[in-house]
Alpha/beta hydrolase (Adhaeribacter radiodurans), 266 residues
Amino acid sequence: MFVQIGRSRLHYRVYGTGEQVVLAFHGYGQDHSHFYNMSQALPHAKIVAFDLFFHGQSVLYKGNTPLQKEFLAQLISKFLEEEQVSRFSLMAFSMGGKFALAVLEAFPDKIDQVLLIAPDGISTSFWYNVATYPGWLQGLFKRTVIRPARFFKIINWLDSTRLVDSGLTKFAAWQMNSTQKRLRVYKSWTGFRTLTFDIRKIVRLLNSRQIKFTLFLGEYDQVISGKRLQVFARSIQNCQLILLKTGHTFLLHEVATYLRRHPGVF
């Protein structure tokens, strides 16, 4: 199914038939299907799993690029109207955190709960800034998409010298090991560059409305650092922070397992 404005369309799939409507946004390199296991863990939920733009079947028209928060809010508003959804909860993993935060900003009075899993958007990495920085650095990244040999030399050097955790270098290499993947990296990082947030505003929205907030982090996650996220979590009054003994890659699966064993969390 799709919600569409002009030539841009956001694809989604519904999992489950429960009463709790959950808008879910996956991580980089995934699609809506990664929330199937989550729906099995939450029989009381109706999970509406969206494909991020540049993933799955979602399409962001060139004229709507980079994605603006206002345009995303228009798409979600149209979805809520078409599906007659008055209240909902949010769930997001990794890059999908940017989408969830944008929806939270736009519809704070319609939201019951928020569950974020190692979310992007709260703290931004140096490499993200490099990729989206205007000028010659962005041009250098574009050339890397076409001619990645130098990139892989640097990755191999970082791995051999142990200057960067080996899990992180393997993750980076896997995300860049084909032209299609490199194009998706570039389109995602530049296409979502306007999805930035005033974290103090996010905290005020959550606290003023006493929205239940659950944050899952991976103890061995080298992609999304948990230190600043834990500081963020301590600022939220109605917050539950859960640390799982896993890395970034398997975190979504481990969260589904945890929720199946602890049905009262979400």
Summary: The chain has eleven helices and eight strands. Residues 2-124+196-261 form a domain with the Rossmann fold fold (CATH 3.40.50.1820). The chain has two domains: 2-124+196-261, 126-190.
